[in-house]
Amino acid sequence: MGRIGIGINNEFVRHEDKSFEWAVEKAAELGYEYVEPMVHWGRELLSEAGYFHSVSMLDDPYRVRRICDKAGIKLSSLSSHTPLCKPEISCEYLKQAIRFAAECGAPVVNTDEGPKPAWTTEHEDHVLMRYVLKESAALAEERGILIGLEPHQQYSKNPDGLDKIYELVDSPAIGINFDTGNSYLSGHDPIQWLEHVVGRLVHLHAKDISIAQSQNQRGKVTGTPLGCACGEGVIDWKAVIEVCKKAPQDIVMSVECGSVQQAQQSLRYLKAFL
Question: What is the CATH classification number for the domain harbouring 46?
Fold first, then answer.
């Protein structure tokens, strides 16, 4: 059984209009042990100007390592979501994220199947996903990086669908990045689903769902980018932690919320159970 740590996805500063460096320093100031940066390809204006937290994979990965070391915080993973059903986007993106993770010191890269092409069949989509995961797993295995598949889109919105994607490629590099909020919104019991995947768990998105969002969206969506503060919604965090304790390796619960205040509240609430 592994140790449980608490981290924060850098999306908590999305509306602060601040840089990656600011996000890491704020996470450390709040008392988080881990951060989960978001990475992108190419260059875009807001992050280059210091108004957005995402990091370009054209940057030096050691930039990420240096900033985290300076702040005294560790990396739990990279938020590297890319549509696995679209290999013209995802194949080279995910492979680059794996190389970037290996250099910056992130043990996991998280992704999902993404929105599918409008014209492909379900069978074709799974062939396309297998191609991307097979190519990516080869790089990940050699570098000791884990790929976390997240329940988030049209095929992973239920346990059987996520299992089918996981089983496309037999590789020790492929595991599950479970998302408590997405699983709940898709209409399932997150605790039962987490129990089902805990032996394959490599990372967890700690996302709570407010009662209002639950009433408006449960069963109608497959996921949501951000949740409310942990403890203010519908997720049973004590039960989540008890299941995570059964995981065969260390697990970071990476909080996904929408503000600095929610991040502070989430950490205070989750630490009480640990």
Answer: 3.20.20.150
